[in-house]
Design goal:
The complex is a heterodimer. Chain A is an alpha/beta fold. Chain A is built from 17 helices and 5 strands. Chain A has 2 domains: 249 residues, no CATH class; 119 residues, abc type-2 transporter like domain (abc type-2 transporter like fold, 3-Layer(aba) Sandwich), CATH 3.40.1710. Chain A is elongated. By secondary structure, chain B is an alpha/beta fold. The radius of gyration of chain B is 32 Å and the shape is elongated. Classes of the chains: A alpha/beta, B alpha/beta. Chains A and B meet through helix 2, helix 4, strand 4, helix 6 and helix 7 of A and helix 2, strand 4, helix 6, helix 7 and strand 5 of B.
Chain lengths: 391, 422
């Protein structure tokens, strides 16, 4: 045991030396993650500007103009154009200048006042679901509020009290409680997701690079010899600096997400930190697996990199896993990121007790198995010269 | 006569570069994976992930303290729509919360004890609605379905009450809903997620695989000194134009094939919108590919090792996707950053491509983007020529230096001094 620690430390020192002499290590460990963190915090810190829409007001009465200005006052919609016909609106849409058209047909005011149903039509482009959802929600709510206001006026003009009119106009009221993420802020869950994506990409690349260069430049035996022939000690000593650096980056990630972007944090910080550490280690294990399978630096980087960028889609944060085909649901479990994001949502956003994260944490540990299985092969790669110098 | 000689030399060199590039790509698993297979793999995998297009049947939990016919009817209405179904009836909030944490349900409706009494007494009944906004799509489906059900139910109750007051049915209908709200999604009627996101992803993948793949080959040229090895006999160094042209033609020929496949057969298989005139699509994709290729060649001169391009550039894919304004509205991105993002051809192409394919935008509609892309073709083409020219000269002078150093060892110092003076 003592010699194991000694050997590990020897490799650790050798690795730290390498890190400070090969600038690409420092680039992947600190510079690029820092740049990406900065860019994401700038993006997610920014608030949403209003989304341009056009209004086709065929009524052009005080009442219709009142509705238009109500829509304009919503946080998302901005009435950027007043158009004369649908053709004009469609052209603006095709030129990418507006996202939607609000049509108020002629006789709007007359119908409303004359106790005949009036109609408002909202044409959403639908090309961007996110924007679609934001606009739809605000415009629909505005029209509904407008309609209820008119109803109350009508009922009160018929002699009802305000309270009676309210009970009649809205017989079933609903108290809306947004359980988690009460601000319905899009960036609160996208930010951690993107930052963690960055970390996992760099972790995989670093791990493959650290081991792959030993093979490519033929220093693998020297590496193994430094560990006195113990592949365990060789790997541990080699990967420990990356583990430390990346865990440090996860802490910075949490500072960015919670302090700068201001995402909610409702649960156990210890659990969140622990899960980030396991997250880093699980992706290091995946890096080991890729280089051991392909025994070629660049092929392993291509496959490892290709695999790591897939994680975002399959985490189900944007398009839920529940909605995927069954085979794709299984596929989504091939990424530690999926489990890490579940823990993040449970702990930070929903404030679930730590025990609800245990199963996901255990799943992340399972990703160590492929790396352990590959250990004998990795030893062979390191001691047999025929695997070296591959391009 | 001299011109003729130059032209034939240029053609020969271009052909040599192209032969080398094809061999480089098709004999190398790493490059093949990125420049050929990645587009198919990602388009297929992402396409399958979003294959279902819409989220349906989100499980809900209901706490029914009223336990009356009216509350039953309300609960049934949550089952009526396609988006949600009532999976559990929880006894209390504690149980509902536990189900929620275990991811058995994604929304809770609380119906209080006095629900029916208030409804029948002409008062306002309250219903508690607990949605989870941790997953956005989930939130939207649950919220829309429940609010829709409650509003419909409310309008019915109001109508009945008005009729009971002796108002005729026509008037009752108008009073209960003076303004009707209609909404139409013009170009993506079912709001399919894949339809929305895949065209953008495909365009970004084309750019990223080109940049990384060309960078890999560029690193190989430097690492294996191909600039020297491919020099025709009797020439001091390769000419600049044939190197850039040969490379560009090779990459273009490969991507012309794979992109054609993706935009036709793959698009048909997955049912993505193809409302654009094919000529408009070509008018957009042509400068896009060229801009990406020249940008790739210019950047590739910076890499001295073949693995460096992936290490340097993979991470940018995520940011570029975000800057394309798809997963995150471009109105939410700071303007300066969005402007910087415009150095990437994808920033112009993604948005224009979606308008062409979704809305059938014409060449006139996307003229600003096409112009910007051609501008990039010339700028990056120029940069590629300058960078390759620089590298060829650098390689040549390095070779001469080495030769001089070698000669210096065997030649007396006097002569060396003379050479240096000269």
């Amino acid at each position: 045991m003592k010699s194991f620690i000694h050997n590990t430390y020897a490799v650790f020192r050798r690795e730290v030396h390498r890190i400070f002499h090969w600038k690409i290590y420092l680039l992947l460990m600190f510079v690029l993650p820092a740049i990406s963190f900065f860019l994401f915090s700038v993006i997610f810190h920014n608030s949403l500007d209003s989304l341009p829409i056009a209004v086709l007001d065929q009524d052009n009465t005080p009442l219709s103009r009142q509705l238009v200005s109500m829509v304009d006052e919503t946080p998302t919609a901005l009435v950027a154009y007043e158009i004369q016909d649908m053709e004009e609106g469609m052209a603006l849409m095709r030129q990418g200048k507006i996202y939607a058209i609000l049509q108020i047909p002629a006789l709007f005011e007359k119908n409303v006042m004359g106790n005949t149903q009036a109609k408002v039509v909202f044409y959403n482009s639908g090309c961007n679901i996110t924007i679609n959802g934001l606009l739809e929600k605000d415009v629909q709510t505005t029209v509904r509020t407008f309609s209820t206001g008119i109803q109350l006026q009508l009922l009160q003009s018929q002699g009802l009290t305000a309270r009676q009119a309210m009970a009649l106009a809205l017989p079933i009221n609903f108290d809306k409680h947004i359980l988690f993420n009460p601000y319905i802020n899009y960036s609160y869950y996208l930010a951690p997701c993107f930052l963690a994506m960055m970390l996992l990409i760099f972790t995989v690349l670093l791990t493959v690079y650290a081991i792959g260069t030993e093979l490519k430049f033929g220093s693998a035996r020297e590496w193994l010899d430094t560990a006195d022939g113990s592949i365990m000690a060789a790997l541990l000593g080699k990967l420990l600096p990356t583990t430390i650096a990346m865990s440090l980056m996860t802490m910075i990630m949490y500072v960015v997400v919670f302090k700068i972007i201001g995402a909610p944090m409702n649960g156990s910080a210890a659990m969140l930190i622990l899960s980030a550490l396991v997250f880093v280690i699980s992706y290091q294990a995946i890096g080991i697996f890729f280089i051991a399978v392909f025994d070629n630096l660049r092929l392993a980087l291509s496959f490892g990199g290709g695999y790591s960028v897939l994680a975002f889609t399959f985490s189900g944060l944007t398009f839920p896993i529940m909605a995927m085909y069954p085979a794709m649901q299984w596929f989504s479990y091939l990424f530690p990121f999926t489990f890490y994001m579940r823990i993040y949502v449970d702990i930070a956003m929903r404030g679930a007790p730590a025990m609800f994260a245990m199963a996901d944490l255990a799943c992340m540990f399972l990703f160590l198995i492929p790396a352990i299985v590959m250990m004998p092969r990795l030893r062979k790669l390191c001691s047999d010269e025929k695997y070296w110098g591959k391009l | 006569m001299k011109l003729k000689k130059y032209i034939s030399l240029y053609i020969k060199e271009t052909a040599a570069v192209m032969r080398n590039e094809y061999r480089e790509i098709f004999s190398d698993g790493g490059v093949m994976l990125i420049m050929i297979f990645a587009l198919f793999i990602y388009a297929t995998l992402y396409g399958l992930a979003y294959g279902n297009q819409v989220l349906r049947n989100v499980p809900l939990g209901v706490i029914d303290n009223s336990k009356t016919t009216s509350s039953r009817m309300l609960i049934d209405s949550f089952n009526a729509g396609p988006n949600t179904y009532v999976a559990y009836e929880a006894a209390d909030m504690e149980e509902a919360k536990r189900l929620f944490y275990e991811r058995d349900i994604y929304g809770i409706v609380y119906i209080p004890e006095d629900y029916e009494r208030k409804l029948e007494g002409g008062l306002q009944a309250n219903v508690g609605l607990y949605c989870d906004a941790s997953y956005f799509l989930m939130y939207r489906q649950v919220f829309q379905e429940i609010v829709g059900a409650i509003t419909t139910k409310g309008a019915m109750v109001e109508f009945q009450r008005l009729v009971a007051k002796g108002i005729n049915t026509y008037q009752a209908k108008n009073v209960s809903q003076p303004v009707i709200y209609q909404s139409h999604n013009m170009f993506n009627p079912y709001l399919g997620y894949g339809t929305f996101v895949m065209p953008a992803i495909i365009i970004v993948i084309i750019q990223q695989t080109l940049l990384i793949g060309i960078g890999m080959i560029g690193g190989t040229w430097r690492e294996f000194n191909l600039y020297h090895k491919l020099t025709p006999h009797g020439q001091a160094r390769m000419s600049t134009i044939p190197v850039v042209l040969g490379k560009a033609l090779t990459y273009f020929s490969i991507y012309a094939v794979s992109v054609s496949y993706i935009l036709t057969i793959h698009y048909h298989l997955y049912g993505y919108p193809m409302n654009g005139n094919p000529l408009t699509v070509i008018a957009l994709i042509l400068p896009y590919l060229l801009a990406c290729i020249f940008m790739g060649i210019a950047i590739s001169t910076l890499f001295t090792k073949r693995e460096n391009s992936i290490l340097w550039m993979l991470w940018s894919s995520i940011i570029i996707l975000l800057l394309s304004g798809i997963s995150y509205p471009k109105e939410a991105i700071p303007e300066w950053l969005f402007t910087i993002g415009k150095i990437f051809p994808s920033s112009h192409a993604v948005e224009a491509f979606i308008r062409v394919q979704d809305m059938g935008a014409t060449i006139d509609d996307i003229m600003p983007q096409i112009a910007a892309l051609w501008q990039q073709v010339f700028i990056y083409g120029g940069l590629a020529l300058i960078a390759i020219h620089f590298i060829l000269n650098q390689e040549l002078s390095e070779r001469i230096r080495n030769k001089v150093a070698k000669m210096a060892k065997s030649v007396p110092h006097k002569i060396v001094r003379k050479i240096k003076k000269a």
